Predict the 3D structure of the following.
Amino acid sequence: MFQTAFTLSLTQFARTLSLPERLQHSPLRNLALEGLRQRNLALDALFYDVKVITPEEAFYISDSLAAEGAILIVPPSGLGALTLCETIDEFVLRGGGNARALAVAGIGGSALGAAAFARNVADAIDAPVAVVVSGYGIADAITEAFGGSFFFGHLRGLRPLLESLDDLAGRPKVGAQRDGTAARTSLDTRTVQALLADPRLSFRLLTGHSKGNLVLSAALHNLCKQDEARITELARHAKIVTIGARIAMPPVFTDVVDVTGEWDWFGEINSRAFIHADRRVAQAWHHTNTDLGGHLPVTTTLMEILAASPVAGNQKAGEHQAARLGAAAEPAAIPETKSPPAPAGGTTTAIEKVKKAISARPMPSAQPPAFGPSDDTPPPIPH
């Protein structure tokens, strides 16, 4: 717990040092929101495993904690520092093409929480992970006043309509920000959609936590309307894992695993009732902070899922997982629906096999589509 508190304190201190510079741009907006952003930072320190972020990385991203649409490249623990990118072109130039997983975090929307969630995913697949920062702006503050923190899945249309206020107030133009008036989808959703549509990129695993699942779902629904060929190819090779909230994905995606904690009432009230959990993690709530009791262990849970059901195109990726998973000593996940058990025994380490599942052949190229409105219409049969 000491490391979590240290990372939070260091990030808050670095954030304070950068305040004078940030006040030179949109001073009223930054002053009005800074207190709420600091609160969200503290929430993310509780809900996410922020101790996996090094002090140098925390200091590095402190100035962009609330930059909606910013993209981070997060390698596994001990294999290099994370990289902050403001645009998709910068993301590609700085090695984003090597990322085989795309993650979206929720809760407070800070870059620290997003980086911590992505690091847990990267440790599970032993490969770099791209993660989009949800941020916190005027639209979020207004949506929160209507109960957005508890009903984000049911207020999905309010936040995008209010994002024009953020643009008028001088929001930094990062991510998939376009010139002119704001689109009908939020900036983090547009950025996720642009990453999925870019022919230079190939993601094998798509995962989100809490409100991040709503962002991922909206981006996929938009892409379905704009480029059917691209979404079909993506669905053929990619696995989706939702954690903490069950949100409807496009029907074309059949390899979807919905994970929730046994005690996660918060996730339940924000989930679609017609979607049943594929895995319930015993004695787990909504948070993923391994320093606290009742956490949902993201790394171990993902390794178990990929062992039992590898991504399409490499069914051998789940072999010999028992040696690695047996040492994890985390609460066992109890599946509600039947799934093939993970094979036991062998000499090859689990981390190498999971890595092969994510690093399958790249998808065929397709032209990136124009952006369109979100659609979270539930399929006739869940997933």
